[in-house]
Design goal:
454 residues, mainly beta, 4-stranded antiparallel sheet, 3 helices, 28 strands, 5% helix, globular, binds calcium ion
Length: 454
């Protein structure tokens, strides 16, 4: 996520806030690693981490809540605080309501060490979100969109979760593509837009904002997460930008592109879209070569409802024309993420993919259980690309009491698959929104930990 359950965190936060007394008595026990994994490092925090990003030795994370305290934090040399006293996190920015993804900005835009932060969500006082960029060395910051209460005149309120950078008008510079949404609860949006901001060659300012261009494709229910890739334009050998939208509210997985032969998005009459599937509340989506055959699939999750389990799906292309919904074939990787009686909870959230250990031929899929407080691994049962069978196991539980009827969930943020100690064994970075901790989960096979000692 990106990849995280901002949606879930909010809706989970409301009931747990109201039932805090019950929460203390029904709390279960953390299971710090299962099925060959163990917690090797905890860094305690003052606030619940949601989105995180590792930049060299530094950890950035965002925190948000219904009340005050939203901020972008940094902990320098963060691994030195493993299992030690709680470090002092620097609050870099406190002006963004409900800060979501922190993402690197391509160097060709502003030079090295720039990052974006997308912010906002639907609660009152949190819904005038924005996108901003900042330099990690100087902390110089610029607003890229209206919002976040900085001086810019009249503008509608929207919230933003992520950005991507592409040359949308084919003039040689990168423009900013994003999705924004406005609603007043976890319900159908009042407004939702997939749009891009045209690079003016300068940082946007109060009097010279980057020009907004809305994408006009018919099925265009972008709300929170989306992803981009380049696919071959049918009938040609040229590559073109294709945007996948995982519509949470619309419960649709959509593709958006332009029929303009030069891939110039200025011509709105050329914008097109299809609905690939409608299998649930789509959460995260990513174009990724899941099976290692050199071609990208769409990997996506759907969030559970009280009467429908959450799922992890892959959609592969089985024909040349990706513009036809029938060309996409769904593979159900796992379809039993837990349901909750409380409609404010759901599972799973986002995911991370990586070879489980050096030498593996095919990646393991790691999935955040979101409000079930778990982390899952889905290990491929075959190296053969056409085999989509996986073995699913839980590798971490925040609270072993969480079940269908529990009043409170436990929320895992946007997980990352990394190898922080470079030993060839993948480690999982878990922001525990419930425990106020950043956790590193390591494999027992790795020589750096022993499951017996912990
Ligand atoms: Ca451009
Ligand atoms: Ca593939
Ligand atoms: Ca490792």
């Amino acid at each position: 996520m990106l990849k995280f359950s901002a949606l879930a965190a909010l809706v989970a936060a409301v009931p747990s806030y109201k039932t805090s007394e019950i929460k203390n008595t029904e709390r279960g026990v953390e299971v710090p690693g299962e099925n060959g994994w163990t917690v090797s490092c905890r860094v305690e925090l003052d606030n619940p981490p949601a989105f995180s990003l590792i930049d060299g030795d530094d950890l950035f994370y965002t925190t948000f809540a219904i009340g005050p305290g939203d901020a972008v934090y940094r902990i320098k040399n963060w691994l030195s605080h493993c299992n030690g006293p709680k470090p002092d996190a620097e609050a870099l920015f406190t002006e963004f309501p409900w800060p979501n993804a922190i993402q690197p900005v391509p160097e060709e835009l502003y030079g090295p060490r720039w990052f974006s932060v997308s912010s906002g969500f639907f609660p009152n006082l949190k819904n005038d979100g924005c996108v901003a960029v900042f330099n990690a060395d100087t902390l110089e910051m610029h607003y890229m969109t209206p919002g976040c209460k900085h001086v810019q005149g009249e503008h509608p309120k929207f919230f933003y979760h992520k950005v991507e950078w592409h040359d949308m008008d084919q003039d040689g510079d990168l423009d900013m593509l994003t999705a924004r949404c406005l609603n007043d609860g976890p319900i159908t949006p009042i407004n939702q837009t997939l749009l891009w901001f045209e690079n003016s060659g300068q940082f946007p300012t109060q009097i010279s904002l980057w020009k907004e261009h809305e994408i006009a494709a018919g099925n265009n229910t972008a709300d929170v997460f989306f992803d981009t890739t380049y696919l071959t334009r049918p009938g040609t050998e040229k590559q073109q930008l294709v945007i996948a939208i995982s519509g949470f509210y619309s419960q649709q997985l959509e593709l958006v592109w332009t029929e303009d032969p030069d891939d110039d998005w200025l011509y709105v009459s050329k914008h097109r879209s299809i609905i690939v599937d409608n299998a649930g509340w789509y959460f995260e989506v990513e174009f990724h070569d899941v099976n290692g055959d050199g071609k990208k699939e769409m990997l996506t999750t759907t969030w559970s409802r009280s009467d429908q389990n959450g799922a992890l799906f892959t959609y592969s292309i089985n024909a040349a024309d990706w513009r036809n919904p029938d060309s996409w074939f769904r593979h159900d990787i796992y379809t039993r993420f837990p349901r909750f009686l409380n409609a404010g909870f759901g599972s799973p959230g986002g995911f991370a993919t990586r070879l489980k250990k050096a030498g593996d031929k095919r990646e393991t899929l790691f999935v955040s259980g979101d409000d079930d407080g778990q982390v899952y691994q889905h290990v491929p049962l075959s190296d053969i690309a056409s085999n989509w069978r996986y073995e699913t196991k839980s590798i971490y539980k925040t609270d072993d009491d969480i079940g269908y009827a529990t009043l409170t969930g436990a929320t895992i943020g946007q997980i990352q698959a990394i190898d922080h100690n470079k030993d060839g064994f993948t480690d999982i970075l878990i922001p525990s929104y419930t425990r106020n901790e950043m956790i590193i989960l390591e494999q027992c096979e790795s020589s750096s930990v022993s499951c017996d000692q912990i």
